[in-house]
Amino acid sequence: MAPTDPEAALRLARLEDRDGNKRRAALETALAAHPNDATLLDAVANYRLDRGEAWQALELSRKARASAPQWVDPMLTEARALDAVGLSARAALVRIDAAKARPDLSRARRAAGGAYRRLGRNDEAMAELKQALALRFDDAEARSELVSLQLERADVDGAVKLAG
Question: Which whole-number Å values give the CA distances from 15 to 6, 42, 60, 77, 150, in the listed order?
């Protein structure tokens, strides 16, 4: 029996985190009851990515993104899936699009900063990472990546100041 509310179904699936088979079954049951719910589609896509099923995860994350175009989680899941199937340049573009769609979210800015860095565009990477820190001062990943960029530029004073 599947819960009638998609959020309740997702919570039920998350309770089954110790047994992978029960978690998969709960996610699949919830998705069967609510096939167009972006949250559930994204959760199943992440589950598939964790299991190495990147192509299925890519398909599910694209459905989730189509269902909720301004929600950043399916964008970042799609980027992870694109990386997993070997489409790294496209993944970088999706991460940059996520920051453009939601410039108010630190994790979107951090993802865009990492994408710019992988593309060799260090100035844009630093700008995005600084914005991520401005949005969320305790973002350790953004801070670490920004420190690395500053050290690559031989800006030891700036790196030490950022590292605290």
Answer: 14, 17, 22, 21, 42
119-149 residue pLDDT tens: 999 999 999 999 998 998 888 888 888 888 8
Which DSSP category does 138 fall into?
T
Q: CA 126 to CA 128: how far, in whole Å?
A: 6
Q: Is 70 helix (H, G, I), strand (E, B) or coil?
A: coil
pTM assigned to the model: 0.81
Alpha carbons 7 and 44: distance in angstroms, whole number:
13
| Nearest-5° Cα angle at 162, 158 to 163 | 115
Give the residue ranges of DSSP H helices in 54-102: 54-67, 72-84, 88-101
* CA–CA distance, 104 with 22 (Å, rounded to integer): 36
Which amino acid belongs to residue 156? V
* Domains of the chain: residue spans and CATH: 1-86 (1.25.40.10), 101-164 (1.25.40.10)
- How far, in Å, are 63, 109, 111, 130, 144 from residue 139 at the CA level? 29, 11, 12, 10, 9
